[in-house]
Amino acid sequence: MLVSKNQNAHIKRSWLLTFISLIIIQQTSGCNTHQNPAIDLLATATVTANSVPAQHINRTQPSWSPTGNEIAFRQITYDASKTLDSIWKIDITKNACVNLTPDYEGLNGAPIWSPDGNWIAFTSDHRGNLDVWIMRPDGSSLTNVTLDNPYADGNPVWSPDNKTIALESALPDETQFDIRLVNLATKTAINLTSNSGYSWKSPTWSPDGKIIAGIAAKGNDDPSGKNLNGIWLINITTQTRQNILQNDKKYSSVSWSPMQSNLALATEDLELQKLNVQNSKLTDLTKTGTRPVWSPNGINIAYYLRSGDNIDIGLMNWDGSNQTNLSSSNKGRNEFPSWSHDSNSIVFESGDNLGLSSDLWIVNSDGENLRKIACK
Residues 153-204: pLDDT tens digits? Predict the structure, then answer.
């Protein structure tokens, strides 16, 4: 049985971290932007003439291809009569753009390339329910890979061998989530976290593809009276789970280093930490950032940097040293950093604080050559 429209709306709001498109920045230093969303993925489909006086375009959620020349992104076009929400691609050598999902009405977001560059995964409610889809880089071979689940699926993450996608799947109670794996050859799925007593999010693959790390939360109804959050490792072959960190921090995302031994953790209180998966040593990196993204060479971490009333793109070394603001000249909202395959550049979204317009920008990892990319 499919969830109701109200239930689906609730589930869609649960993926703000990945899908949030529009954020109003509260004028309070240190505000956690992920706890203060103005409009989420669902609401972007209902912008009216009262709130949009003329056409506005949001180019957001960029994902750099492994080949280096193409960037997939989400484009939301608002005008007085309608809202269009599609997955696009730009060839940065030519500034040539193409709409990959022109016939897909509804919400389409969070594109992510497969490691070999042959596929793009994204999330869409084109058929009424949030599902994970895959397509070729030219928009062909569109396939829904989560038809087996009558509830919402999202946050797809590719395995290193391109054969499997890990994702978050909503459970029937609409407030809990599991981590599932979808075999793309057979379109079959297995649940890695069923009957665990936790709600799971933010799956991330180990570089060798043998383990998935994720966040598990008990919630406020835990008998201890604490909102317990844990970082867990899940063996793909045996499906056994190992808890390597447990505390009362509210973790929002986790990202595995390409160098195998470290996880970057983000909390809802704008703390970034580094966790060694072998000895569980926890190191504080900064108290003004969230949403870490490792460079492909494992040397640097890009992240959301809270800078006064702005959200900027921060950069630090893997150990937290040499912290730098890469987007200080772009006032407003700078989000969704994605690395080039050679670790030399970062693409990100930059827009106004009201979220009505945004463009894609590229900056070198040394902070030089900041420039906007645009479609011809």
Answer: 999 999 999 999 999 999 887 788 999 999 999 989 999 998 888 899 999 9
Sign of CA dihedral 244, 250, 256, 260: negative
User: In order of start, what are the domains of the chain with their CATH numbers?
Assistant: 5-53+83-332 (2.120.10.30)
What's the confidence (pLDDT) of residue 260? 85
